[in-house]
Amino acid sequence: MKRYIAAMDQGTTSSRTILFDGDGCPVSCAQEEFRQLYPKPGWVEHDCRDIVNSQLNSFRAALGKCGALAEEIEALGIANQRETVVVWDKFTGKPVYNAIVWQCRRTSEFCEHLKTRHAKTIYDKTGLNVDAYFSASKIKWILDNVPFAKKRAEKGELLFGTVDCYLIWVLTGGKVHATDYTNASRTMLFNIHTLGWDAELCSLFGVPQSMLPEVRPSGADYGVTDKAVLGAEIPIRAAVGDQQGALFGQLCTEAGEVKNTYGTGCFLLMNTGDRAVRSQNGLITTLSASLGKPDYVLEGSVFIGGAVVQWLRDGLGLVQSAAETEELARSVSDTGGVCFVPAFVGLGAPHWDSQCRGMLCGVTRGTTRAHIVRAALESIALQAFDVVHAMEQDMRTSIARLCVDGGASANGFLMQFQADMLGAEVCRPAVMETTALGAAYLAGLAVGFWRSLDEVRDHWTIDRVYEPYMTPEQREEALRLWKAAVWCAREFGRCTE
């Protein structure tokens, strides 16, 4: 009988299941997209049935593709979109409302009011800035706006969970109500220093503690799947937020190690070891994935990463495909003095400027589409540089290597420019599905499928390492122009308020 570790990767727009073998290589993968619901401007929801059904369908399809049996799955790990909120009936398992997605901005006004009095308290306890992005205000909205929800929650009849938690509840037939440290640390209700739910914060948001799940290490016992659900009793041995899953999948388990996931945006995480670093540079502090007590992480998000390429293709029609951008960027020796700030929805970390607007600077009559494409790709790396630089300042050290994954990491020009800007190696792994791989590693280690991290490292392989070649003078000139362009974009944003 063959042996596999299964990873469910429940994302914002689709659900995937990947089966991994003993070498940590993907054997089979299946994916199913599901509906995005936008009931009002700025509101984003998911039908919880769509989440569950797409995830179960992808699991069955992944098994079918390689002829695997459910009994051959040694353990299951779950990675999930973070911050998204589900509230459900404790007795029936039925959600009282759609899942409110991390992107949803319906509670922005409430959060702005909250900032004025409680921002420091919340940051000191959670490492998070007060924002509608995180879970707490979304829970409050459901309790305040769904008929009888608040009373039912106070009576102990309702449960809350992030998507991992709800999936575990469904998969175990309602036997386990638990989440992990990484997901709990994104709720704005969890004290990352005491590693427990915080009574003061729960009271501040009006969330009864009876709703909250038990919090466990990412690699731990989350029960077994109900045979009626997946066809076998499969041990669930990992739950992890997607970005921390990717950090673990990149094996960034030591202080100072950093990864960047180049998706629609960019998510940069640095392991800071057992020290919760209080950022002075616009980053948040959160928890890492682990098999025991978690380490701490500095995190910074870039709003527009790979979306730049989508804009070049769909918005401007400058390219027909993402792959075309690399060739075009290499066809010119530089940007011809052009600098692009992709602040379509403001700038994320470390600037946190919601008023900033996109700007194309330095255009002349000699500017070509190749120059614009090159400047757009460079902007992704320059935004990542700003976040890494903030991390280096907070940690008072320089990084030696950036581990990368995500769609845009396939662009060789971008990766080389990223290495040049950082003055550090950029390392791209052979297995790019690092979020799912992280969940698989955690589950596999928890059941002894892999005996140790050292064994895991023996199987982990690198696709390519990009070395920096740019001179310090060239790097400083590029950064000088970038800083000037960002300043102009921010000033323009303030003028349009």
Task: Give descriptors for this structure.
497 residues, alpha/beta, Nucleotidyltransferase, domain 5, seven-stranded mixed beta sheet, five-stranded mixed beta sheet, 16 helices, 22 strands, 21% strand
Protein described:
- With 497 residues, the chain is of the alpha/beta class.
- Helices cover 37% and strands 21% of the residues.
- The strands form 7 sheets. A 7-stranded mixed beta sheet has the order 16-17-15-14-20-21-22, with helices on both faces. A 5-stranded mixed beta sheet has the order 3-2-1-5-13, sandwiched between helices.
N- and C-termini, Cα separation: 64 Å
Number of E-type strands:
22
Helical content stands at 25-40%
Structural class: alpha/beta
Strand content: 15-25%
| CATH architectural arrangement of the largest domain | 2-Layer Sandwich
Uncertain spans:
none
Radius of gyration: 22 Å
Under CATH, the topology of the largest domain is which? Nucleotidyltransferase, domain 5
Profile the largest sheet.
7 strands, mixed
Query: What general form does the structure show?
Result: globular
Whole-number tally of structural domains: 2
Instruction: Compute the average pLDDT.
Output: 93
The CATH superfamily of the largest domain appears as: ATPase, nucleotide binding domain
Determine and state the CATH class of the largest domain.
Answer: Alpha Beta
- How many DSSP helices? 16
Q: Major sheet: order of its strands?
A: 16-17-15-14-20-21-22
Quick rundown:
With 497 residues, the chain is of the alpha/beta class. It is 37% helix and 21% strand.
